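Lay summary. Proteins are chains of building blocks that fold into shapes, and those shapes determine what they do. In this project we predict the shape from the chain. Here is one chain we studied, written as its sequence of building blocks.
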Amino acid sequence: MVRDFDIAKEEDIGYYIGFITASFALSQLLTGIHWGILSDRIGRRPVILCGMIGTIISITLFGLSKSYIWALLSRSLCGLLNGNVGVLKSMVAELTLSAPPDQRTRAFSLLPLMYGLGCIIGPLLGGFLSNPVTTYPALFGNLGSLTDFLLIYPYFLPCFISASICGVGFIFGVLFLEETLGGVQLQEKKQQQEERQRLLDQTDEDGYNTFDQGNNEEDPSIKKIDPPPTLKEALTPTVWAISISYAIYAYQVVYYDELFPIWTASKRSFGGLGFASNEIGTALAISGCTTLVTQIFILPAMVRRFGLVRLYRSTLFILIFVYLSHGLVRLLYDVPDWEGHTDTKYWVWVGLFIVLMMKTMCQTIGFTSCTLLINNCAPLRSLGAINGFSQCCASLMRALGPATCGILWSQSISATWLPLSVRAYINWIFLSGIAVATFYTSQRLDASKYETVQADEVVDYADDDSRCSDETVARRV
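And here is the predicted shape, written in a compact code that computers can read:
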């Protein structure tokens, strides 16, 4: 799309792609924590539904882009109107308060599992449905005004399909999504208890009371619902430590996500692989399939075997060398295939599959582990605020990641005074350095402080509520 805007040379396109991607994360930085705090007060369900509406609108507008500024603004709008990532994490945490650790892991793994499914569908939609009139003239070439529309807006069709999928999700949310916010549930319980007390008082006034008339103190079973703790109170040193680690980890992940399509699409003379858009879509779909397999079959067993903190550290360490391995894939063009021919993509695809599989497994395990660690150490009544805060930290890095990736890529391939064998590795060496920094932050985590605390809060509340009810019955009989 950016290339079709014809606003820059081939070697400078990375700048503009990076700014579009960064605009989404920067917008989330401005609003993510506010969406989280709002969900702590009014509930998760309305915030999620509002975010889906914002996504539908912004994706549709993005497909109507005819200029770089329009594309930039529509992506920014998507970030402003959608804080669902942090809110969904809070929702899953509340649904698994008393679940065993392995079941809690499986529940949280559904988030990147769905992301992996999106990584399969999304690239395929973008790769195969962009420029549909040119790509499939027999299907879209004779549709009258629709053909003219798709010629004017060649990227509208994949965006429209994506918005439609989100629309289906919105309908399912309206019909079937239930509220999980503990504060809302406690408030409903309080109202029921107040209604019961009102009926008892009315019975007293009608002269049918058989209870002790001299004891009129407030019923302790009617518990006052305090507002959630402030963000400052919720941000304990334990939360800060894992949030910082999560932010740097998000930086390396988004840097890779930005670098991969630029690297694979760039010409070999620029240090890339020279792939077409449909080949890039296929590679990303392979990555998505690996995510699905990892979440379903690998992650729960590894969490039981190693524990969250140890597993998080291990995957970060492996990623250091996985990123460095990516830079070697382009050399596989020089390896003869089975027929003795060089400059073919046979071994390139083999090498790319291996590094993609390793990268996806490590990133998937690391992401889920870090998400669990954040929710394990967050107070129950501040889940939305804490997840919103961690999402804002990640959004800041996700805003910096694409921009720095685009700048570093453009600068590296423009530095013709360096040999190509050096320029092609600059980005991968830099990314490995970020992985080293992320691994260092994981070494600062105290594993004993990241056991789940919300279940204890629920048990304490249930015990208090039961004790108060027993005292009330004993006092009234």
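What the prediction tells us: Residues 10-180+230-457 form a domain with the Growth Hormone; Chain: A; fold (CATH 1.20.1250.20).
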